[in-house]
């Protein structure tokens, strides 16, 4: 029987500014390794279940397209937050998925995502082995949160950290200019849910030309509002502008998110994650009343994960590299694994790819260690800053058109026909 030679790749979870570089890495390596077709799932496994996919050769036509894709933020294929049911809960979904994979003659299924997405790789590879399917299932790490286990860091984190470091400097500079004869408190809210890696990256702003933020609060340690207020009041006695970085996910000792104290969102996703927003705005209102001065909340929100104009070269290159490594692993017969990045040295910075059993990664969270925070957990240590700094180095110039970065966007006519096919099938 002829060897199956098609690959399907999907993107899942919160996007990053380099997730498409991993897609480019998968595509380029798959073609170079002689795979026949490279399909892309539209909106991950959720779209695939509706037979939403494209042949990527209809989208990527040249080396320039590859370069554009590497510099295009957000998920080119569309993403999803979709939790596959346990196999015993709904076998039909698995049967349907494998029917689609068999129909497309898929040999390797590659999923670019974070810990929730690795749950999908784990379940599909388990199902394939038990039921005698030969497809290989490989995970490609991705998340700005940097909370995946067993990898030194995750693609997406370095670029978000670079943007956050630069934005923190800019926010500090802006506030300094406006505090003649009056005080001002600025609270910056950074993404990261339960892991404070990105919030810690605000400390990168501390350089020869900038003092960096005054206080940094990560979600790993319970947040003490009274102690925090005391610290801010003390700082205001010494300086006019106080800049504080907080994680969106900081929680009180009783487990309530700080954002729940204010006007927050009730939205919860398929993995049970509450939408975290409003921490900075709650604290800004609270401190305005407590300290009687002007306050401002800066929620970096999606800007921090989509700022490809500020992406790190190390990050874009590593994102591409892990995509390629997943194709190689699948081609060599691995399955149920995720590619990891091993740090070989800091100076000069060097890394290589490795591979680990996805069962040891899915649904796990790697948090900032307590000893990378100071005594009262109001700042990160030099160890933490030294860990992040190599990951933000270098730039990839955006390809500028009319003064703005050019992105590679989906050829909509192909997408529509895929949608039409799926709808027609649903009607039959
Ligand atoms: O998982 C990555 C992430 O960016 C988290 O840092 C953040 O909490 C979450 O996604 C936000 O997700 P959404 O855009 O779906 O609200």
Short account of what is shown:
By secondary structure, the chain is α/β, with parallel strands linked by helices. It has two domains: 6-155 and 309-362 and 394-427, Rossmann fold; 157-306, Phosphofructokinase domain (Rossmann fold).
Strand order of the largest sheet: 3-2-1-4-5-10-11
Bound molecules: 6-O-phosphono-beta-D-fructofuranose
Distance between the termini: 33 Å
The succession of helices and strands, N to C, reads: EHEHEHHEHEHEHEHEHEHHEEHEEH
What's the total helix number? 13
Summing up helix and strand content along with how strands pair, one would put the structural category as: alpha/beta
CATH architecture of the largest domain, please? Answer: 3-Layer(aba) Sandwich
CATH class assignment of the largest domain: Alpha Beta
**Number of domains as seen in the coordinates:** 2
The CATH topology of the largest domain is given as Rossmann fold
Rounded mean pLDDT score: 94
Q: What fraction strand?
A: 15-25%
Unreliable segments (pLDDT under 50, ≥5 consecutive)? none
Percent helix among the residues?
A: 25-40%
SS elements, strand count:
13
Specify the biggest β-sheet: 7 strands, mixed
Radius of gyration: 23 Å
Q: Looking at the structure, what is the overall shape?
A: globular
Characterise this structure.
The chain is an alpha/beta fold. The chain has helices at 19-32, 44-49, 63-70, 91-103, 115-130, 157-176, 197-200, 225-238, 279-291, 303-306, 313-331, 382-388, 412-427; strands at 6-11, 38-41, 53-55, 106-113, 136-141, 184-190, 215-217, 241-247, 294-299, 337-346, 349-357, 400-401, 404-405. The chain is 36% helix and 17% strand. Strand 1 (6-11), helix 1 and strand 2 (38-41) form a beta-alpha-beta unit. Helix 1 (19-32) crosses helix 11 (313-331). 49% of the residues are buried. The model has no long low-confidence stretch (mean pLDDT 94). The structure holds 6-O-phosphono-beta-D-fructofuranose (F6P). Residues 13-14, 114, 143-145, 191-193, 248, 275-276, 305 line the site of 6-O-phosphono-beta-D-fructofuranose (F6P).
